[in-house]
Amino acid sequence: MMKSKSVRDFFSIPFSVLRPEESLPFDLYLYFTQSDHIMLWRPAGEIITTNFLEQYRARGLSKVWIHVSEEPLFENYKMHAG
After folding, report:
1. What global pTM score does this model have?
2. CA atoms of 43 and 35, how far apart (whole Å)
3. Which of 27, 30, 58, 67 is the most buried if burial means most Cβ atoms within 10 Å?
4. How far apart are the C-alpha atoms of 32 and 74, rounded to whole Å?
């Protein structure tokens, strides 16, 4: 379920910080600036493959968005990298 429709309730992270072959602990969103629209892209619990990450990196995806309520989950994810 969508937590908010306002981008002000989200923060962006570099796409490059996502790690392959791990379960996402938070939902990922895409933000479309021209239409000022944010949408759920990948739900928490999904495992993103190396191939998937490479495919979207090649398409030019540089950042994704996380709801502010899940910031502690993201901070924990960053701390346990590698």
Report:
1. 0.89
2. 22
3. 27
4. 22
Q: Is 54 helix (H, G, I), strand (E, B) or coil?
A: helix
Which of 4, 3, 74 lies closest to 36 in space, CA to CA? Answer: 4
Specify which residues 64 forms β-bridges with: 13
Alpha helices in 1-82 (DSSP H): 50-58, 71-79
Cβ-contact 47, 66 below 8 angstroms: no
What whole-number distance in Å separates Cα of residue 65 and Cα of residue 9? 10
What is the rounded distance in angstroms from the CA atom of residue 13 to the CA atom of residue 19? 13
Q: What is the pLDDT of residues 9-30, one digit of tens each?
A: 999 999 999 999 999 999 999 9
Phi-psi region of 31 (alpha: psi -120 to 50; beta: other; left: phi over 0): beta
